[in-house]
Amino acid sequence: MVLSTDGWVVVVSGAARGQGLSHAKAYAADGAHVVLLDAPSGLATVPYPVADEDDLAAAHAEVDAAGPGAVLSYAADVRDAGRVAEVLADAAGRLGGIDVAVANAGIFSFAPSTWELSPETWKECSDTILYGSWTLARAAIPHMLGRAGANLVFVGSVSAHKGIAATGHYVAAKHGVVGLMKTLAIELAPEGIRSNMISPTAANTTMATNPAMAECVHYQEGRGSNMSNLLPVGLIEPRDVTDAVLWISSDHARYVTGEVLKVDAGFTVR
Ligand SMILES: NC(=O)c1ccc[n+]([C@@H]2O[C@H](COP(=O)([O-])OP(=O)(O)OC[C@H]3O[C@@H](n4cnc5c(N)ncnc54)[C@H](O)[C@@H]3O)[C@@H](O)[C@H]2O)c1
After folding, report:
1. Does 33 have pLDDT greater than 90?
2. CATH number of the domain bearing residue 143
């Protein structure tokens, strides 16, 4: 049994910062070869800056310094299925295949109520989170076939498991990824490929700490119970999520598939 991801080829979308960067560095430290995708273009409805090519270059250097394996990074928007397929084919060609794909890229936006979202806001969020999870999986799976232990990890959210006011597009997209993850678990089981989801509560990254979040929280006040963690913590750290991502993608979890592992400090319990 392989006890770590040493020597594996791991793809992480949204890897230029935040949780994705944390995952990428941890895989590198574990001995994996790591492929970073990020630096989307043309996202106009996100109330904070997404990562750019400079961020991706800085992330590449950090991941490279974290471990002995190869690091490849690509400017690729997960909404561009052709580009994602092209870069994963290139990475797989250079590194010999793909063992793990982590669909982590995501954006967050809001409106006072979900019916007041602009169509553009709905579409950018859904295209990045739901369609973008599928574009990564579709591009990775052909390069995973025949590789022992290969698996997909989708990054969900507490929003994948309950309704949350002012963010119906994000909630719907994350719920959709649950269905995608489970369906792929069924389809890929005969190939020995697993498919799972890690669902974090609010984490200490730009997505949750940017100034616009205060307005979102204001819209949510009094419109849903239990909008807090059960455990006494406000924001969890990326590393808390990374530990779960690494475990579920390793052979330690070799018979775990179609599963959601919540790293949510009890947010969804009540
Ligand atoms: N931060 C939280 O509170 C929280 C909570 C639950 C779930 N999540 C989820 O965790 C994941 C990681 O988010 P984070 O907290 O690290 O936020 P983040 O904003 O720091 O990082 C997200 C990364 O995804 C990239 N990205 C966004 N759209 C993209 C696209 N179309 N193509 C390629 N890359 C794209 C961004 O450039 C950025 O580098 C997301 O799926 C998010 O929905 C976050």
Report:
1. yes
2. 3.40.50.720
Residue 107 alpha carbon to ligand 1 centre in Å = 5
Domain-located, residue 143: yes
Look at residue 99 and tell me if it is in a domain: yes
Q: Domain limits at 185?
A: 9-263
Average pLDDT over residues 47-55: 98
Q: How far is the CA of 19 from the centre of ligand 1 (A)?
A: 7
Confidence of residue 2 (pLDDT cuts 50, 70, 90): low
* Closest residue CA from atom 41 of ligand 1: 106
> Domain for residue 3, yes or no?
no
Q: Which two tokens stand for residue 201?
A: 């509560």
Structural domains in the chain (count): 1
Q: Whose CA is nearest to atom 8 of ligand 1?
A: 157
Q: Is residue 1 included in any domain, yes or no?
A: no
Q: Is the pLDDT of residue 245 over 60?
A: yes
Q: Are 76 and 140 in contact (CB under 8 A)?
A: no
Q: Which long-range contacts (CB under 8 A, 24 or more apart) does 161-164 make?
A: 161/199, 161/260, 161/262, 161/268, 162/224, 162/268, 163/224, 164/220, 164/224, 164/227
Residue 255 is among the residues annotated as catalytic for this protein: no
Q: 146 CA distance to ligand 1 centroid (A)?
A: 30
Confidence of residue 41 (pLDDT cuts 50, 70, 90): very high
User: Which of the residues 27, 48, 170, 219 is marked catalytic?
Assistant: 170
